[in-house]
Write a structure and sequence with these properties.
CATH topology of the largest domain: Rossmann fold
Low-confidence stretches: 1-6, 516-526, 617-630, 732-737
Number of strands: 17
Strand order of the largest sheet: 3-4-2-5-6-1-7
Mean pLDDT: 87
Bound molecules: adenosine-5'-diphosphate, magnesium ion, zinc ion
Strand content: 5-15%
Number of domains: 5
CATH class of the largest domain: Alpha Beta
Shape: globular
Largest sheet: 7 strands, parallel
CATH architecture of the largest domain: 3-Layer(aba) Sandwich
Helix content: 40-55%
Oligomer: single chain
Structural class: alpha/beta
CATH superfamily of the largest domain: P-loop containing nucleotide triphosphate hydrolases
Number of helices: 34
């Protein structure tokens, strides 16, 4: 386990402020950094915008020698190096764009220990003389970015990554830290094994992106709806995704002719045009980029304020990744999906062309998941996280259209019973289409052949149309009253909850939301206001400086940093230093220019009330809006009491919280890699029994396990054992090969 050396503690907090300008760590950063400083290997899954770069850049600054960062995209390296340099880190990159002279100059600097951070493309590791040279260079650590590229199971396999397995053999003393934003457990194990990580400290952060606002709008006029959105958000930077190249060009043209600075991006454009357009977007010259999914990896732009899907995305995972490009800086950003059932047949058509049965039904299931996501009245965040196997703890996320919308609950128990009775009377052996046909009393060949027109439920729902019954099915699926099973023709089955409803032991309600235009613009409380007029001025200043230095504006200061200036009006250097994101080097370089601009603004606009000073420890956007900061503290308190040897119940009593809340805290602690002795909380024999149950039941829900325990297993116990199983699955890989 990691040993935390106290002398590191001060150095890292100090470096965080003086180099990066931040007062607090994002979740998991501190533990990862301490692990690296203690020369432990690390494997971390953290969402986009989670702050992975800082996890290796900060140790790079502290440790002796160069930190070698392997990163797949040459196009990104320059920006990454520029960003590190503006913070005063001695950074460089080595890839095929350098000539021989530049390479040998770079080697000389590396040998002289003049470089702190070196970005390298993976293919270098397959070149034999490169490794020889590398051996002569003092190296502090290896960081492998986008580590999922090493796994064939991942979504972006790159064979070049396989040669990275030489690193642990050739550099036994340098810690290796692997990072990715997406990895299932299977991919995680594969990555750790392929690189050869040595008992890594494993982090799986939550996929939740609290600053993203998710919204689905009914698509009617398409392009004019987009235009309306853009007009309501002038000068904001954003991505509009469309499915085909033609539609990309059409939308870009439509927007340009309506006075929006929009540029297209798709794989059919010549590489020069693509690069030029991506660059213009990065540099805030074009506000909007209209793109196919070809526009993806390689966007490190932190101030993307919205991502619009003008068409239905292919699957939830793609949707999560594409929307994930918004709001990396942690400031509020919007994800808007325009959904029309009319888009479904087009996608169905392509799926129907797939000849492999298993593959086709998988694609179909994925399509259905997206449709459910868009059409269900269930919190969008809960649905997205659920897809990644994460349970969102709060009832109301406070930052999606469902949770903010005006909603009305209405009972659908009777219709649900009709539907499920049709399923039950036909032996739960039929799919959605056929069950609906029975309920509405359709006269089809299949119904006659199976004599389903003879069953009692036949036609009992004929007073309502197909759409209504489809809606009922969707709701029942969403609320786990029924489930789909089987390939390639999934049939509907009742769950325990479903049969409770069917036999009148439980009620079921659906939610109808009011379709108001304003709903999407509802103010999201928790996110702070800032002075928009000043922001405009500072944004222009930032753009001028960025152009002078040949870097993208967000490299100078992130939107988050500039927003904070527009709240606290730092009109002197000491005040400027307190702004999040202003480290020593940036303060020296840009501080004056921004202070001058703010002073000018204040003198032109007398009477602006100025808050005392920026508070300390203020990563608001990340922690403020959903009480996460508070949760963080209370989790720590639970940890403290655990360390004192208290039992779960005792902690719950002492803190006037429920045991299940405390179990939730402990789960979080285990997930974040804290060393918790659960033998004290769940006795070993019972723990083994619970583990067995998870494996034999082949699923990760708590309920079936608790039920199978016949009253001997509590939810709390099952929760803790599950958390340990997840943790240990991440660690076991080195024992299994
Ligand atoms: P990732 O690679 O995980 O997608 P990045 O490393 O690009 O994320 O970081 C995203 C943004 O978050 C950057 O603008 C970075 O400066 C900012 N950031 C990272 N760590 C912190 C922190 N501790 N406090 C505030 N902002 C942070
Ligand atoms: Mg990154
Ligand atoms: Zn929600």
């Amino acid at each position: 386990m990691i040993k935390i050396q106290m002398d590191n503690g001060f150095a890292i907090v100090d470096t965080l402020k003086t180099v990066f300008g931040f007062d607090t760590f994002r979740p998991n950063q501190e533990q990862i950094i301490k692990g690296i400083l203690n020369k432990q290997d690390v494997f971390a899954v953290m969402p986009t915008g989670g702050g992975k770069s800082l996890c290796y850049q900060l140790p790079a600054k502290i440790m002796r020698g160069a930190a070698v960062v392997i990163s797949p995209l040459i196009s990104l390296m320059k920006d990454q190096v520029d960003a590190a340099r503006t913070n005063g880190i001695a950074a460089a990159y080595m890839n095929s764009s350098l000539n021989d002279q530049e390479v040998s100059d770079l080697y000389r600097m590396l040998k002289g220990n003049k470089i702190e951070l070196l970005y390298i493309a993976p293919e270098r590791f397959a070149m034999p003389n490169f490794l020889d040279i590398l051996k002569d260079i003092p190296i502090s650590l290896f960081a492998i970015d986008e580590a999922h590229c090493i796994s064939e199971w991942g979504h972006d396999f790159r064979p070049d990554y396989l040669s990275l397995s030489v690193i642990p053999k050739m550099f036994p003393n340098a810690p290796i830290a692997a990072f990715t934003a997406t990895a299932t457990f299977k991919v995680q194990e594969d990555i750790c094994r392929k690189i050869g990580l040595r008992k890594p400290f494993v982090v799986r952060a939550s996929f939740n992106r609290p600053n993203l606002f998710y919204q689905v709008e009914r698509k009617s006029s398409g392009e004019s709806q987009i235009l309306e959105f853009l007009r309501a958000h002038p000068d904001e930077s954003g991505i509009i995704y469309r499915t085909t190249r033609d539609s990309v060009m059409e939308t870009a043209l439509f927007l340009t002719s309506n006075g929006i600075s929009a540029i297209p991006y798709h794989a059919g454009l010549p590489p020069e045009v693509r690069n030029k357009n991506q660059d213009a977007f990065n540099r805030d010259e074009a506000a909007v980029i209209v793109a196919t999914i070809a526009f993806g990896m390689g966007i490190d732009k932190s101030n993307v304020r919205f991502v619009i899907h003008a068409d239905l995305p292919k699957n939830i995972e793609a949707y999560y990744q594409e929307t994930g490009r918004a709001g990396r800086d942690g400031e509020p950003a919007r994800c808007l999906l325009f959904f029309s059932r009319g888009d479904i047949p087009k996608i169905r058509y392509f799926i129907d062309q797939i000849t492999n049965d298993a593959e086709r039904s998988l694609s179909l299931e994925k399509l259905n998941q997206v449709i459910r996501f868009a059409s269900h009245n269930v919190c969008r965040r809960r649905q997205l996280l659920g897809y990644f196997g994460e349970v969102y703890p709060a009832d109301n996320c406070g930052n999606c259209d469902i949770c903010l919308g005006a909603v009305e609950r209405f009972d659908i128990t009777r219709d649900a019973q009709i539907m499920m009775s049709a399923m039950s009377r036909t032996g739960q052996r039929f799919g959605i289409g056929h069950i609906i046909d029975i309920v509405i009393g359709a006269d089809t060949k299949r119904i006659r052949a199976l004599e389903h027109d003879k069953i009692k439920t036949y036609g009992s729902g004929k007073d309502k149309d197909k759409n209504h019954w489809q809606f009922i099915i969707d709701e029942l699926l969403a609320q786990d009253a029924i489930k789909q099973e089987g390939n390639p023709y999934p049939v509907l089955k009742l769950t325990q909850k479903g049969s409770n409803i069917l036999y009148g032991k439980e009620q079921i309600a659906a939610i109808k939301r009011e379709e108001t235009k304003e709903r999407g613009r509802a103010k999201r409380d928790g996110f702070e206001e800032y002075d928009q007029a000043l922001f405009e001025k500072l944004r222009m200043l930032r753009k001028r400086i960025a152009d002078d230095e040949g870097v993208p504006p967000f490299v100078v200061f992130s939107d988050k940093t500039v927003h904070e200036m527009c709240r606290y009006y730092p009109a002197a250097l000491p005040d400027m230093r307190r702004i999040s994101g202003v480290g020593n080097v940036k303060l020296e370089r840009y501080g004056d220019a921004f202070v001058q601009e703010i002073m000018r603004y204040l003198s032109e606009n007398p009477g602006i009330p100025i808050p005392d000073a920026a508070p300390h420890g203020r990563d608001h956007a990340h922690t403020g809006s959903h009480g996460e900061e508070k949760t963080g503290e209370t989790v720590e308190e639970t940890y403290r009491l655990l360390q004192k040897g208290l039992s779960m119940d005792a902690i719950a009593r002492q803190r006037s919280l429920t045991s299940s809340t405390i179990a939730g805290h402990i789960e979080k602690l285990i997930q974040s890699g804290r060393d918790i002795d659960i033998d004290r909380l769940v006795e070993p024999a019972k723990r083994r029994e619970i583990e067995e149950l998870f494996f034999t039941l082949k699923q990760w829900s708590l309920k079936p396990v608790v039920e199978a325990g016949n009253g001997r297993i509590t939810y709390e116990e099952a929760r803790l054992v599950r958390a340990c199983l997840f943790r240990d699955r991440g660690k076991n890989h080195d024992a299994t090969d």
